[in-house]
Amino acid sequence: SFPRQGLDVILSPAEEGAEIVSMADSTTTIDDIEGELFRIERIREILVRRESELRYMMDDIQLCKEISRLKTELQKLLVLPENQKSNEEKQREEELVQQIHKLVETRDFLVDDVEFERLREREEDKEMAEFLQSKLSKSYLQRASGSPVREKKMTSRGQQTSAPYMSKTGLTLLKECCGFTCSIM
Where is this region: Disordered (predicted)? Predict the structure, then answer.
């Protein structure tokens, strides 16, 4: 039958003698499981945030490339003397200026979105910190009153690295990639 090292065996009368082995280690407490679930949820949140940042960065890079391409084309038209330009070239010049303007506006909206996301994430982090603080305070009060509560400080890998990780996200990455110091802007 099944190995019984550290596993809870539950016999179900409905199974007529068949053994059902619990996946839970008998030394694992509900607090341990909740802590692990919390760590997994936190890692998932960090990955979702990172995916969002990468999508913003990708959009920004593509916008910058397109702006650069259009500016190059516009510069070729601008070097021609005005009296030597055909009507098509003058019209193309106007179209290019309008396209560049539209792309710059789109990029501005993108930067605004990144800033909004950064502020929303900061608020979520603040709420989570307050929740954890209240949870830790409750467990401290329970321990002080003599109630047997086994709590341990849980720090996920994402939480351990969140300070340096968060310092270079969103708007900062856009600025470095193709932002305010970008040569094409």
Answer: 142-163
pLDDT surpassing 90 at residue 123: yes
Strands (E), the chain: 7-11, 19-25
Cα end-to-end distance, the chain, whole Å: 70
Query: Is the model's pLDDT at 25 over the cut of 90?
Result: no
Query: What is the four-CA torsion angle of 128, 129, 135, 137, rounded to 10 degrees?
Result: -160
Please give the Cα distance from 14 to 115 (Å, whole number). 57
Q: Are 49 and 121 in contact (CB under 8 A)?
A: yes
Sign of the Cα pseudo-torsion (70, 74, 75, 77, in order)? positive
Question: By C-alpha distance, which of 60, 64, 53 is closest to 167?
Answer: 53
pLDDT on residue 31: 84
**Residues facing residue 7 across a β-bridge:** 25
Q: Place 30 in a pLDDT band, splitting at 50, 70 and 90.
A: confident
Q: Which residues pair with 19 in a beta bridge?
A: 11
> Considering the chain, what is the average pLDDT of its residues?
74
Contact predicate 77/92, CB 8 Å: yes
